[in-house]
Amino acid sequence: MAVSSRRLQKELREIKENGTPVGITLLQADDFATWFLSIEVLGETLYAGEVFALKFRFDPQYPISAPAVQFVVDDYYKAPVHPHVYSNGHICASILGSEGWSPVLGVISICITLQSMLASCKERKPPPDNDGYVQRAPENPKKASATYP
Amino acid sequence: MSGSHSSPTQSQSLNDDINALSVDELDRLTQNVLDETASTRPLLGETSPLSVLREEYERGSATFLKQIDYLREKGYTHFRRTRGDGDCFYRSLAFVWVESLMVSPDKAFEASKALSLLESSLDSLEAAGFQKLVYEDFYDALANLVRQIASPAADGSTLTLSALLAAFQDPETSNSIVVFLRLLTSATIRVDEDNYAPFLFHPEIGEPIPPREFCENFVEACGKEADHVQITALTKALNFSIQVAYLDGHGNDGTVNFVEFQIAPPEEGSPPSPVLLYRPGHYDILEKH
C-alpha cells in the first residue's frame, strides 16, 4: 500500500473517532486520492456566515509531498475574496508549497491554518495579479509556477 | 502565513563558504548542483573511485584538486553520491548508520541495540508533541531495515549491502527514512531546547530563532539542508559518531578539515567513524576500500 493510503487511513480514522475542530467539516473522503472538507470562520471576521469548501488531492508520496489544495469554485461554493486566494480557488500559503510543507502537517492542520488565514484578514480584496494569474494558471495548483504576491 | 516562495534555504556558514569562492568556481558549483537536482541521479549511488570526482574538477579549481589529492593521501579511495535534493545529509547519515551496523563484528547484537534505541527514541518524539500517526510509518521504514540485519525476511534472506542500496534508491523507503530522521532531529532539539536555543539562528538572516520555529522550518520540512546543529542533534540521538570532511576550497595548503561529531571517546580497536564528504551545499559519503 502506498505511503499516502496508510497515512490517510489513519487521518480518516482520527477524524471519525475524535471529530473535527470547530468550523471544519468532512464533506467527502471516498478514496485516498481526493477529499473535500468545508471550513468556516466563527466569530467576528470578514467572512462571518460564509462556508467554503476545500478540495485536497493527494499523490502517492503524500505526506512526504504536499497535497494539492484549493478552494472549490462551482455553482454552490465560491472562493473567499482574500489577498492570498485567487478567484479560481488557488491559494498562496507557504505551508502548501515545497518550501513550507512538512510531513508533520496533515489535512486537519491545513484546514486550521487556512481558517486562521481567513480569520486574521483585514481587507476583502483579491491578489493584485488575480486576473493574469487565473488566465494562465494550470488546473492543478501544485503545477502552478510559484510567483505569488 | 505569507506568500513568499522565493527564499533560498542556505545556511549562514554555507553562505560564507559560497562567498569565499571565485566566480568561476561558483558557476561550476552551481552547475554541478543543478545537474544533480535534475533528479536523474539515483537518490543514493553506487560507490565510485575518487578519481571520478577529481576529473570533475580538473578544469576547475586547483584548491579542490589539491584537497582531493589530500584525501587520497589519507587513504580515502571512493565516494558514494547522494542526490542534491536538500535531504542528502539525512540520507547519507542513515545509509552509513545502517551499513555500520551490518558490517560490525557482532551484527545481531548491534542491530538489536539499534532497535531498542529507535524504540526508545519514540518517547522523545511523543514528548516533542508529534502524533503517532505522523511518525509511525516513517519509523517502520527504518526499523524494518534494521530488523532485517539479523532477522531473516520471509524468504530466509538477511539484509545484504546490495539490498541496502536498493532500499535507499527506492523513493518511498528512502524518503520515509529521511523523514523519520528529520523528526528525530527535531524532537532531540525540542525536548532539550534550553541547550540548543543559543545555537539556533535563522539560516538566511542570521538572527536568533525560537526552537519551535527553527524545527518546523529548517528541520522537519523536506529538502532543508542540515547544518552543525542538526548534525549534532541527530548523531546524539542515534548515539552514532561521524566525521565530516570539508572539501570546500578553503585554505591554500590543500588540506581538508575533518570535523568530528563524536558521542563518546572511541573504544580501543574500534573502526574509525564513518565520514561524510561535504562540498558547499551538499553531502556525499567518503569511503576507504
Automatic annotation (TrEMBL), chain A:
Cross-referenced InterPro entries, in alphabetical order?
A: Ub_conjugating_enzyme, UBC, UBQ-conjugating_enzyme/RWD
Q: Where is this region: Disordered?
A: 125-149
Keyword flag Cell membrane = no
Domain (UBC core) ranges = 3-149
Q: Which domain of life is it from?
A: Eukaryota
Name the SUPFAM superfamilies on file: UBC-like (SSF54495)
- SMART domains assigned to the protein according to its UniProt record, in alphabetical order: UBCc
Alphabetically list the UniProt keywords: Ubl conjugation pathway
- Fetch the PANTHER family from UniProt: UBIQUITIN-CONJUGATING ENZYME E2
> What is the official name of this protein in its record?
UBC-like protein
UniProtKB/TrEMBL annotation, chain B:
CDD domains recorded: Otubain_C65
Which domain of life does the protein's organism represent? Answer: Eukaryota
The alphabetized list of GO BP terms reads: protein K48-linked deubiquitination; proteolysis
Q: Which Pfam families match?
A: Peptidase_C65
Reactions accelerated catalytically: Thiol-dependent hydrolysis of ester, thioester, amide, peptide and isopeptide bonds formed by the C-terminal Gly of ubiquitin (a 76-residue protein attached to proteins as an intracellular targeting signal)
What are the residue boundaries of the OTU domain, all occurrences included?
Answer: 77-289
- Keywords associated with the record: Hydrolase, Protease, Thiol protease, Ubl conjugation pathway
Extract the coiled-coil ranges from the record: none
Q: Name one GO cellular component term.
A: nucleus
An example Gene Ontology molecular-function term? ubiquitin binding
Per the UniProt record, which EC number(s) apply here?
3.4.19.12
Protein name in the entry: ubiquitinyl hydrolase 1
Q: Does the keyword Hydrolase apply?
A: yes
Q: Which PANTHER family match?
A: UBIQUITIN THIOESTERASE OTUBAIN-LIKE, UBIQUITIN THIOLESTERASE PROTEIN OTUB
Annotated organism of origin: Cristinia sonorae
PROSITE patterns noted in UniProt: OTU
